[in-house]
Amino acid sequence: MKLAWFQWIYLKKNLTVRPLFRIIFYKKNGTLRKIGTMILDQEPLKTSDLDRKITILRKLFQEKNQHQRASDPPPFLELLNPAELKSRIKIFLNETHSAILISVSHDDYRKITGGVQICIRREEQAARKEGFIYLHVSPLRDADGQNYAGPDTIVSVVINGSDLGCTRLSSLILAVRDLKQTDIQIIIHHLLGFNINQLSNLIQTTEENSCILWLHDFYTICPSYKLSRNDTGFCHAPAIESNACQLCAYKNERVQHSAQVQSFFVNHKVKIVAPSNHTLNFWISKSNLKPSSCHVISHQKLEILPRKNKVILSPTQSVRVAYLGYLIESKGWPIFQKLVSEFAKKSEYKFYVFCKNNPNFFNVNWINVTVTKENADAMMNEIAKNEIDIAILWPNWPETFSLTAFEALGGSAFIVTNSSSGNIADIIRETGRGVVLDSERALVDLFSSGAIVQLAEKRRQDYFENEIAEKNSSLSLNIIHRK
């Protein structure tokens, strides 16, 4: 669909509506307004013409997805054949390292900073300590971040943290089969970017036709992995045949995707691993999938200990309030911006943003933070260094775990979150280190009433009395053992 010049004012490059204009395009229930339809289609519509509005939305999403699959690999890209792959993998095999863990995810965990990638990095380290060879597979992407086209996925292969090369998934499957290793186990951290039916062939290389599948989000339920109806708000995963799902642009894609995922579970022994009880309970209630077993493995654990050494806080009357991480709507960035706009001029509040990129927003103190393999505790250390009182974590979907919450607590900050934030809300209820609110209005009232000052004082008193010890889990290694 060719867009008029003025339509690019309202739409991003991926053809979704810019956050600033969503209130113009959508009603609160996620359906498209008449004016939104007219802007997208450049044709007047009748108010009752709901089916046509939905068709327009789906047309946008289909063209977006077609663009994502339209990129062909460059002719100079060297793809390893099965024999070459086998030869390179065998270099790492010996008497003490004969077991192979094949880890599957949507991107290269060494190059992207995010919660899933940090988990894979930790898992690699734990696996190598246990004598496993850690072979990671992810879809190869072009310069625009799109997967290369074709039913035979082109993948990037990393072994023990080093590049092995690029190949087609079919070639990797043949190489793994030809290795004739009896101890090959597969961990799927994400299915995104893969042909799920082809991935089944990789699972069949294992002795037990089994795999571990992590619930880092809800991609096994819907391609909208944060369960966002029309990219506007959490949908609570309604049944596919429901009217609520019929109104969503992801509906058609969900039907096809769900059939593939269902077939995957039927054909293999899939062990589900969730990072929190909240996530597992929600998934069980909404997925209708039948795993061989279910497990909850927390990425991290906190221990509150009596403080041994005396500490001194900088003399300040201001409550230090922070936003942590990516400046995106799903993490609550627009909500934080509203707080800053309304309360930054008051002397009792001081606002901070901890992230990699400068937010270029008035009245905030930007702290440049990047979490890397070499500096895994960078965020937590900066929170503690800047003596942050309150971290505002206000996602618009239920977080499955939230490493950011653990970084905040590890830096001795308290957290303010909403009741729909999933595991974040559970953490606060369990530890008492913050508050869980029911609405954005309640968040504003927390500041306008001065109650946030009392919460900050409670945090400071706790800081004098207690310290936080963090312990990272071994992730999949908690349930995987060498044969």
Give the gist of this structure.
With 483 residues, the protein is an alpha/beta fold. It has helices spanning 7-10, 22-25, 34-41, 50-68, 82-90, 115-129, 169-179, 196-203, 243-246, 251-267, 277-287, 333-343, 378-385, 403-410, 423-431, 440-448, 451-465, and strands spanning 79-80, 99-104, 132-139, 154-159, 162-168, 184-188, 210-214, 228-229, 233-234, 269-274, 293-296, 300-306, 319-324, 349-355, 365-368, 390-392, 414-418, 434-437, 466-472. The protein folds into 3 domains: 7-68, no CATH class; 79-299, Rossmann fold (3-Layer(aba) Sandwich); 306-472, Rossmann fold (3-Layer(aba) Sandwich), CATH 3.40.50.2000.
Structure description:
- With 483 residues, the chain is of the alpha/beta class.
- The protein has three domains: 62 residues, no CATH class; 221 residues, Rossmann fold, CATH 3.40.50; 167 residues, Glycogen Phosphorylase B (Rossmann fold, 3-Layer(aba) Sandwich), CATH 3.40.50.
- The protein has 17 helices and 19 strands.
- The strands form four sheets. The protein has a nine-stranded mixed sheet, sandwiched between helices.
- α12 links the parallel β13 and β14.
- The longest helix has 19 residues.
- About 2% of the residues have low confidence.
Task: Label this structure with key terms.
Rossmann fold, 35% helix, 483 residues, alpha/beta, 20% strand, single chain, 6-stranded parallel β-sheet
- Proportion of residues in β-strands: 15-25%
**What value does the Rg take, in angstroms?**
24 Å
**Total separate domains:** 3
Mean pLDDT: 87
The strand count comes to 19
CATH class of the largest domain: Alpha Beta
- Helix coverage percent: 25-40%
For the record, give the distance between the C-alpha atoms at the N and C termini, rounded to a whole number: 55 Å
